[in-house]
Design brief:
It is a multi-pass membrane protein. It contains 22 helices and 2 strands. The chain has helices at 3-27, 35-38, 45-71, 76-99, 105-113, 115-148, 152-170, 172-199, 202-212, 224-236, 242-248, 254-285, 292-303, 306-343, 349-373, 378-402, 408-428, 442-462, 473-491, 493-499, 502-520, 525-539; strands at residues 466-468, 521-523. Helix 3 (45-71) packs antiparallel against helix 11 (242-248), helix 6 packs antiparallel against helix 16 and helix 14 (306-343) packs across helix 15 (349-373).
Length: 541
């Protein structure tokens, strides 16, 4: 074991002990039934800002480190997409969701469409979250592997077990304590990374790289389709960002949650810029590493003493925990609270907490299994998880918020077909991160199938109980937009297909038709009475 490994282990173990202590302190805050899941809804704007920064910016920093090593400055678009998502949630989403006292997205679906929908959406959501957790765990595991010789898989397992230990204690309060502590580790990490950059390669090194590999300074070098998928995935995720909602909605008021999100959006900038600079620096100093995340520790070993390298990777450890902790906890909430209550509707609050703690253990095992399957390409795990979760839950959430016409059968069908079609499309493409079956990204296939299924099954189920609203400006805009995008895909098929934009245009066209259906199709008087009768029977059963 190298000196770098000794420092990394000492600092990681010390930080681990502090986190476990914080979890025990957080346990004292569990005074109400909502304490474990939403922290008594008593977070101020700073706690929300720290939680969201640790969640999104920590994950984004790790993804950009990897992406910028491979593709250069174009990795910045991943961070820009993240910032856009945060600001949209802040200004358009968080107030209405706070008023609904939402805890999970799967809970929203279940409250609207019943136990089967709640159980299925909760299980799919829970399945995706360990993928996000393992994506950031890989970054610290890569450094651990370089410094100590311990395998990547064992390092991921160590991270997963740590998450399980400290989340068991205080739930959402554990996350709040941890994210606040992480901010100090993040600050040290950025400062040390800047020091390393000016030592080697410095500004002159960037100039040399620009002459030797100009593509590294091309804002489109990651590929148009990949960049579009980043933005598309983050935008679709706006109404599905369950872990972010669970933390932001733990605020004492909608205004505090909104302010915290806005602050977190601006706090993301150092992570984005730093990730690009550090990744490109590693590409200059260690140009032939097996992966970008392996190159980063090798680069820092070239230019910094062991204590500083250890502190830098303490920040990376914080990034892994800042993203992985909320993901594991939110996934366990969906599995324990939502699936548990779907299976056992009479479960008490204490029983649901018990189910959630058991779910944390199950998801820890799943996270370790994912780490064994694929311990490279951190960004791939993120996008893959978004694909299978968003492909299943996007249309049901939109329907729960805006289209009371939708039936329970349609929601269950769309959950199943969206999830399986996205998964199948990845399989047909060989699970590749940048090359897709028929040059269409799986997220566009899964999300389109999700929307089409929920629409067609609803129309078939409702039958004569529907009526058309003849005048609606947004409905006509959606219809016209769908027709235009369909014609563009037909007329310019070759260009759209070759550039990888066919799938995007297809999805946006389907989404436009969906908007038109939501605005035009309504229940008639008979249908409305039947729905009211069913809701009355359900509420009194």
């Amino acid at each position: 074991m190298t000196e770098y490994g000794v420092w990394t282990i000492i600092l990681a173990l010390g930080y681990t002990f502090a986190l476990i202590t914080a979890g025990q302190i957080a346990k004292r805050r569990l005074t109400k039934k909502d304490s474990y899941f939403v922290g008594n809804r008593n977070f101020n704007k700073w706690i929300v800002a720290f939680c969201i920064t640790g969640l999104f910016s920590g994950s984004t920093f790790i993804s950009i480190l990897e992406l910028s090593y491979l593709t250069g400055i174009s990795a910045i678009w991943y961070g820009v997409a993240e910032m856009v998502q945060i600001f949209i949630i802040a200004f358009l989403i968080i107030r209405s969701f706070r008023k609904k006292m939402l805890v999970t997205v799967s809970g929203l679906i279940g409250d609207t469409y019943g136990r089967t929908a709640k159980g299925l959406s909760g299980a799919i959501t829970a399945f995706a979250f360990p993928m996000w957790s393992v994506a950031t765990a890989i970054a610290f595991a890569s450094a651990f592997h370089v410094f100590t010789g311990i395998s990547l898989s064992l390092s991921v397992a160590f991270t997963a077990i740590l998450l399980f230990i400290y989340l068991q204690a205080g739930g959402m309060w554990s996350i709040a304590f941890t994210q606040t502590m992480n901010m100090f580790a993040f600050g040290l990490m950025i400062v040390i990374g800047v020091i390393a950059f000016f030592i080697n390669p410095g500004l002159s090194g960037l100039a040399t790289l620009n002459m030797e590999r100009p593509e590294m300074f091309n804002f489109g070098s990651a590929g148009l389709q990949v960049i579009v998928v980043w933005f598309g995935t983050f935008l679709v995720n706006v109404i599905l960002a369950q872990a972010a909602f669970q933390m932001a909605l733990s605020s004492r008021s909608p205004e505090e949650g909104q302010k915290g999100l806005v602050m977190a959006g601006f706090m993301a900038i150092p992570f984005i810029v730093g990730g690009v600079i550090f990744g490109i620096s590693a590409a200059i100093v260690v140009p032939n590493a097996s992966t970008g995340l392996i190159a980063i520790p090798q680069y820092l070993m070239e230019v910094l003493p062991a204590p500083l390298v250890g502190l830098f990777f303490l920040g990376v450890w914080g990034c892994a925990l800042g993203w992985g902790g909320p993901c594991q906890f939110s996934g366990a909430t969906s599995l324990g609270r939502d699936v548990g209550s779907a299976i056992n509707p009479s479960a008490t609050g204490d029983q649901l907490i018990k189910y959630t703690k058991i779910s944390l253990l199950l998801l820890t095992g799943l996270m370790i299994a994912f780490g064994l399957l694929r311990t490279e390409q951190s960004a791939w795990w993120n996008v893959f998880a978004w694909t299978i979760r968003n492909s299943a839950t996007f249309a049901p959430v939109v329907a729960a918020l805006f289209w009371p016409v939708v039936t329970k059968r349609a929601v269950v069908a769309s959950l199943f077909t969206g999830f399986t079609s996205g998964l199948l499309w990845y399989y047909l493409g060989g699970w590749h991160p940048q090359e897709f079956y028929l040059n269409i990204h799986p997220v566009w296939i899964g999300s389109s199938v999700n929307i089409v299924t929920i629409t067609l099954v609803t129309l078939a189920n409702r039958g004569t109980n529907l009526t058309l609203r003849k005048t609606d400006r947004f409905g006509y805009m959606g219809l016209i937009g769908g027709v235009i995008l369909t014609l563009v895909n037909i007329i310019y098929f070759e260009q759209a297909y070759q550039s990888g934009l066919f799938g995007l245009f297809m999805f946006v066209a389907v989404l436009s038709y969906f908007i038109a259906a939501i605005r035009f199709v309504r229940l008639n008087e008979v249908g409305a009475v039947l729905v009211e009768e069913k809701e009355y029977i359900a509420s009194n059963s």
